[in-house]
Amino acid sequence: MARFLTKHLLFLLLTLLVVSLLVFTLNEFTPGAVARKILGAYATQEQVDHLTKQMGLDRPVLVRYVDYVRAAATGDLGYSTRFKLPVKDVLFKHLANTALLAAIAFACIVPLSMLLGITAGMREASRLDRAILMFSTVVASIPEFALGVFLASVFVVWLGWLPGTATLMAGGGWSVASQFVLPVAVIVLFDAGYVVSMIRASMVEVMQRPYIRTAVLKGMPFRRVIVRHALRNAMLTPITVIMLQINYLVAGVVVVETVFAYPGFGRMMLEATLFKDIALIEAGALVAVFLAVLTNILGDLAYIVLDPRIRV
Description:
Elements: H1 2-29, H2 34-39, H3 45-54, H4 61-73, E1 79-80, E2 85-86, H5 87-122, H6 127-141, H7 144-158, H8 176-179, H9 181-207, H10 210-217, H11 222-234, H12 236-251, H13 254-259, H14 265-274, H15 278-306, H16 308-311
Antiparallel strand pairs: 1-2
């Protein structure tokens, strides 16, 4: 286990270094000077030259990259020109907001997907199986923005039961808790559809294995067959898919956060891109890659826990 963790942590560090170098150099070699991108198209040449000297942008790229890595290692990620704050303050604030949204959504997605997927897989080709499979296919096929607009049209415009934005500020007669309902509903419906399909497919495959038929023919109660023999083996493949959803819930919900004006990580990255906030883009890219690799490691660890053969 120690060797496994050491190997993956070294891979994580190497990946972060490669990505940081790629993002740093891409910002350097895309059309336009870095200082011009920061100040905007209407800045004078004198202002651009002054910022270039002030930030040391006239030095070689490799030297500046080494300085950037050294500063990032100490927690100095630069200054955000979009939010007029240090990057780490902006980043942690929006990450905390997205983490809260992701935690609520994840707590709904996992039990709902397992319940529907296992129920459908236990009774393949039944009416219940067909209904669950159709439901999961439909909700997974609808784009997030379309699902968000549809739910907002029904529950905000037509019924008036919920607020149309999730700014995390109480006002207009709506509590902060009520603002989470629609964003969480969109994420859960969109994401659970895919996870349900994966769990169902794995459950159907396991239910056709010889050891399941043998346990049933020996007279073992069906519930015991499912809990002791089928469930653990059926979750081997879906557990990786479930763990990968963490990365989506943090870095991939930019559409949902934009539709409902949620001040999260995805919306922050969108604004940083539109306003050419280079320091924030670089830091956000590192965070997104870190989460992607970390969820892969967690998925591998969960796989080891479920399958004793891998430990050997």
